[in-house]
Amino acid sequence: MKRRFYPLLLALLVLLLIPGWAAAASSATEEAVNLMIGGQAVTPDVPPVIKSGRTLVPVRVIAEGLGADVAWNEAKRTAVITRGTTQLSLTLDSRTALLNGKQVKLDTPPVISQQRMLLPLRFVGESLGITVGWDNSSRTVIANETPQVTLNGRAPEKAIKLYQVSDTMYVSADAVAEQVGQKGFVWNRPERGMTIDSQLVLPIEQVEDELGGSITWNKKKNLLEIERLNRLTGVTKDGDRVHIEMKLPVQANSFVLTGPHRIVLDLPQTALADDLVEELKKNEENGSIGESEERKQAASSGEEDEQSAASEPKEEPLIASLRYSQYSASPETVRVVIELNQKSEYNLAYTKDGIEVKLTPKPKKTGYLIVVDAGHGGKDPGALGVAGNHEKDYTLAVANKVVALLKQYPEFQVVPVRTTDVFYELSERVAIANELEADLFLSIHANSFPKPTTGGTETFYYNANSKTFAQLVHKHLQGATQFPDRGVKASGFYVIKNTKMPAVLTETGFLSNPQENALLTSPAFQDKIAKALVAAIREYYQSYQ
Ligand SMILES: [Zn+2]
Fold first, then answer.
1. How far is the centre of ligand 1, averaged over its atoms, from the C-alpha of 477 (Å)?
2. How are the residues of the chain apportioned to helix, strand and coil, as percentages rounded to the nearest 5?
3. pLDDT tens-digit profile, the chain (545 residues)
4. Where does the signal sequence lie (predicted)?
5. Domain shared by 271 and 152, yes or no
6. Do 490 and 381 share a domain, yes or no?
7. Is residue 48 helix, strand or coil?
């Protein structure tokens, strides 16, 4: 369908803008509504009115401004608007209109004002394929031809709206960002834009500047061409990290698949770089489809040969293979698959040249598994010792010693919650133990009380299945510390309440008690405590095997 403004429009606009014609508009109240039609300010003889949130404008403005013909049927009190192959009939005070012969409902009927028929502009505009927007700050209705938009040569999946104000074309900025794979893009200079229909619109040059790629406005063809095809230039690994190298930033859509475990990243509006396409072709000829260079090198050096690996047990790398492919050609989507040897957590970091995927292994359960939880850590120091020391350092020192001792027993598999001064939520500590289906959970803490003479060792459990383990821990621990015996107690501390296996929390002694604090901070005494805890675990393990 051919759309154009009738040359008559300009003549009429000039006419409308001369003082006599504009007199009615200038007498309007402060609630005046401005019109911007086809990029030009238009002042109609009868000012537009707003009714129930809808702007009504004289029929002539619509007709001429939007390049339509209007016929008035006096008998039926109906305006028939024709634009191209579209015909719209609206009747005065009627909420029913006819669009190409079909009944459609209006929320605001046409009305008469100063002997002019006023029509709801947005309804009429949109029925006729015109873009209509409302800029609340300047109280301006903006209406213009609806341009065609192409994104990398195709129609975008979601509508991208354009508004013409004078000679500047404004585009719905967030819609463009989303369509090029940059949803949630933070604009550097939003103040250069306007808010139309509650959306940020920016001049197309600015969107191009900030997003990259090229955005061209072809006025003659009434066409906006967005060319922003990202290129994947490489996928490499470095230990437990994968680097996805790209020309332009895009947000990956990532998810996990199992059997085998793999992390999938879909890169929207992305194509493979030419050399990667070549490489894939070569690999296809060799029978290995979409595998990266590294995988091939590893395979040819026998590094990943399962038989040779089996003869010499060694730590299996987390990443089994890396693959990429042009997953979809329309719209272009590249898929990167990270195949794993075991279940892993992953984290995406966007860098200036792509995405870094950081993998954190989730250990597989292979033996009698003990999760050792050093209480507090990082931003959470725990209790304050009388020497200015922190509970988090005591718990970590003892936990690390317990972990080292437990590792000497081949029947035990030990997973520390933390081995450094980092913070974990209580829920994360519990999740580690529950997800691994650990056999025991031991949480190490130290106590504090305002009165410095208060002291002693106490041990907590919550679930009935933890009581025996708690009694053993307490027996060995109190025996080692020789602090006052505060006993074994049931208490609903989060980490022992929510773990599914036998779980115990020790409060070895009081950091607020000068004598106990001096011992608790001594490495030799910490060794003694660690040995006592390991003895308790071993006794528990032996009695339950
Ligand atoms: Zn604590």
1. 17
2. 30, 35, 35
3. 444 444 444 444 444 443 333 333 333 344 688 999 989 998 888 888 888 888 888 888 877 777 888 888 889 999 999 998 999 999 999 999 999 999 999 888 999 888 888 999 889 888 888 899 999 899 999 999 899 999 999 999 888 999 999 989 999 999 999 999 999 899 999 999 999 999 999 999 999 999 999 999 998 999 999 999 999 999 999 988 999 999 999 999 999 998 888 999 999 999 999 999 998 888 887 765 444 444 444 444 444 443 433 344 456 788 999 999 999 998 899 999 999 988 888 989 999 899 999 998 877 788 899 999 999 999 999 999 999 999 999 999 999 999 999 999 999 999 999 999 999 999 989 999 998 899 999 999 999 999 999 999 999 999 999 999 999 999 999 999 999 999 999 999 999 999 999 999 999 999 999 999 999 999 999 999 999 999 999 999 998 76
4. 1-24
5. no
6. yes
7. coil
372 Cα to the center of ligand 1, angstroms = 14
> Active site includes 507?
yes
Burial letters for 276-311: b for 16+ Cβ neighbours within 10 Å, e otherwise? beebbeebeeeeeebbbeebbebeeeeebeeeeeee
**For 5, phi and psi rounded to 5 degrees?**
-85, 140
Alpha carbon of 25 to those of 17, 34, 400: distances in Å?
10, 9, 81
The verdict on residue 2 lying in a domain is no
Q: Which of 160, 195, 227 is the last residue of a domain?
A: 227
CA nearest to 65, candidates 124, 113, 105, 110: 124
Distance from C-alpha of 173 to C-alpha of 397, rounded to nearest angstrom: 53
Would you state the structure tokens that stand for residue 291, as one six-digit string? Answer: 């595998």
Give the H/E segment covering residue 429: helix 426-436
**69 alpha carbon – ligand 1 mean position (Å):** 80
Residues 74 and 77: their CA atoms lie apart, in Å, by: 5
Specify the number of domains making up the chain: 4
Q: State whether 115 and 152 are in the same domain.
A: no
9-39: burial string, b at 16+ Cβ within 10 Å, e else? beebbeebeeeeeeebbeeeeeeebbbbbbb
Instruction: Look at residues 135, 164, 196 and tell me which one is the last residue of a structural domain.
Output: 135
Cα dihedral 374/375/376/378 (nearest 10): 0
Q: Do residues 391 and 434 share a domain?
A: yes
Instruction: Judge residue 315's burial from the number of C-beta atoms within 10 Å of its C-beta, 0-12 exposed, 13-18 middle, 19 or more buried.
Output: exposed
Q: Mark whether 401 and 521 lie in a shared domain.
A: yes
Phi first, then psi: give them for residue 494, nearest 5 degrees: -50, -50
- Do 174 and 279 lie in one domain? The reply is no
Query: Helix, strand or coil for residue 286?
Result: helix
Q: Per the residue annotation, which of 145, 291, 507, 516 is the catalytic one?
A: 507
Contact 315, 355 (CB under 8 A): no
> Which residue segment(s) compose the domain that 24 sits in?
8-135
Residue 431 C-alpha to ligand 1 middle, in angstroms?
19
Beta-bridge partners for 242: 237, 357
Q: At what angle do helices 523-543 and 467-481 cross, to 10 degrees?
A: 150
Distance of CA 380 from the midpoint of ligand 1 (Å): 10
